[in-house]
Structures are given as C-alpha cells and as structure tokens.
Prior knowledge:
The chain is α/β, with parallel strands linked by helices. The chain is about 40% helix and about 20% strand.
Amino acid sequence: MADGSYALGTHPAERRRLERQHAIWREETLAAWHRAGFTAGQRLLDLGCGPGFASLDLATLVGPGGRVLAVDRSPAYLDHLRWEAAERRLPQLEVLELDLATDDGATLPDRGGWDGAWCRWVCLFLPRLDPLLAGIAAALRPGGRLVVHDYVRWDTFSLHPSGGGVARFVERTIAHWRSEGGDPDVAGRLPAQLEARGLRLLQARSLMACGAGQDPKALWLQDFLEAYPPRLAQAGFWTAEDQRALEADLAQAARHQAFWVTPALVEQIWERPLP
Ligand SMILES: C[S@@+](CC[C@H](N)C(=O)[O-])C[C@H]1O[C@@H](n2cnc3c(N)ncnc32)[C@H](O)[C@@H]1O
C-alpha cells in the first residue's frame, strides 16, 4: 500500500491495540531477549517495529551506551515512535523507514555491526521474505542473534465450544492476508531459508496458549475479534451474516463455560555462527 499501511492498517485504534498486545506479551518478550543474551550496551535491530512498544523496551534494555534501530515502512508508526523516544529521553533509539519486502529490505545499515535483531509479527505480512532475511544475515555480526516470534499455524485460533462464528472469522482473516501476499503460517518456512543464509537455529519453543474468558491471552483474542471485523468487511471478506454468527459465538461464550486457543505462535532464536 502506497501510504505505508498493510493488512491490519496503521490507524490510531490499531496502534492502541498493538500497545495492549505488547503489554499482554511483554513478559514472554523480555524472557526471549534474555534467552538470546540481549543486554546493556548492545546494538539491536527491531525489524517491523510498528509504533515501537517493544523498541522502547529494547532501548531501555541496552541503555545509553547501546543503540536500537527500529525499522518499519509506516511513517505514521515511526512518527509516533520518534515522539515517544524523545519524550522518554532515549537518544539511543533511532528509527528508519524501509520496506522490508522489497530489495531495500536487504540494505539495512551497518552490515556486520549488529549484536542482535528482533522481529515479531512481521514476516507473516511480507509478500517476499528474501529481502528481510538477506538483510538480517548481512546485518548481524558473527555471534549475533536473531529472535523471531511468528505463527506456524494461525488456524489453531479457536473457541470451544463454538457455533462456527469464530472459525469463520479465522478462515476469512487467513484468506484476506493471503490475498495481500502474506502467509499466516510463515514460521515453518524460516528454518530452511535462514539455514540457506548461513544461520544456525539455537532454540525453538511454542508460545501457543489456551485460557478461559478472562485469561490475558483469551482477552487478546477477543480484542482482535472486536477490532478486526470492520477492516475485513472493508476489504470485502466479511458480511453482516458473518458478524451475526461471530456475535452469537461470543454471547454463548459469555453465558457458558468455554475456553480459547491462540494461533500457534513460535519463538525461534538464530545465530550467525562465528567463523
Ligand atoms: C502486527 S504489526 C507488529 C509490530 C511490532 N513488531 C510488534 O510486535 O508490536 C506488523 C508491522 O509490520 C509492518 N510491516 C508490514 N509490512 C512491512 C514491510 N513490507 N516493510 C516494513 N514493515 C512492514 C507494519 O507496518 C507493522 O508495523
């Protein structure tokens, strides 16, 4: 999209949803960075940073002696992050506007100079992965680490029991993202592609979760079910009948015992090996 937007949009309501989402996933995020050895004084990339809620945490982690470069193609998100970084007096945080799905994505600055890269919920939206993966492989120093959080199976997103409204939403959302060149099961393609670029997989773990209605991960799914249907409808993937079926499912879940299962989210920690 010419305005730097993508399937989910970059409007203020979506920015606020990303903020709530980061809060829900923050603990797992900090633990992942710890496992990867991200620490004070390092130079780290946040690729597809969005409004930068994780970038701000990374900048705090590396401290004034480190550097964080937050990269996204959305000028609206980057403006927001620039403003937040100035407000919080985090001069170690810089932003860069780049389309990671075009050849520009392979031109991350300071090749071989980065201790680590963080990339969450971005690969699934890229019509081309190659530029980003080439950019990462070239950007990391030997011994540098990449941490990815992305989905291996988005269609595990489900409500139990359900009358079919949630399943319809999941099926329609996947169809929308695929129509824009995305792949909601992208995590499974990363091992072969990153190995081909000389990286080594150090760890992989599941972040898939399951919870009853008020569990934070269940609330995360319900938040998305409230936010996304208008966008799906706008794109021609959602009807009034679909919406009625979804609302019937949600009403049923509110009145009875039920649990939610998240999309299958996977953490991968990769390393550019020492020579
Ligand atoms: C779901 S948001 C995730 C944001 C952030 N990584 C997080 O975890 O909160 C996806 C982000 O990918 C960015 N994005 C999508 N396509 C992109 C592209 N081709 N190049 C750069 N960024 C892209 C969007 O602008 C958006 O900020």
